[in-house]
Amino acid sequence: MAAVMLLAALLCAAPGPGRAQEGPSVWSYSFYKTLTYEALANGADFVLYATVLGGTVAGAVPFLVVNSLSAASAYYVHEVAWNVFGPAPETSTGVVELGLAKTLTYRVVSTAQHMAVAYAFTGNPWAAAGYAVATTLSDTVIYIANEYGWDVYGPPLPGSRAATTGAAAAP
To answer: pTM (2 decimals)?
Structure first.
């Protein structure tokens, strides 16, 4: 269901013939960031599922499907909301402060999501809490690396000062 809603949102946000734009939209930009983050984070989540939760091979597929869909949905919604409603940094110091704020707000969302999924599969609040703490540690490193990678190597965020400066500099 989440994947269908995600696809519908992307199709609705796609530029039509009268709305040409340079570079990706906020929707597709956030979608691609979600893919790179979730590919790495779900690999770590699988290892933690097997070690912290003592997950079985039989339970791995359902766990990974539910975890992947719920985590990707949470990340995508957070990323779009931050890109649409979040403040734009004015200085390089502002970039660090906003990056920290963005990381912390996502950690709250992600930790709650991981705890809920782990509890749903184990029924044990202590195992769910341990899994949530472990994923918070591993996923924070992955989140920061993903943000840094997109900031350095990705296209400029649509509507950002870098995107408008680059567009203004082009002939």
So the answer is: 0.74
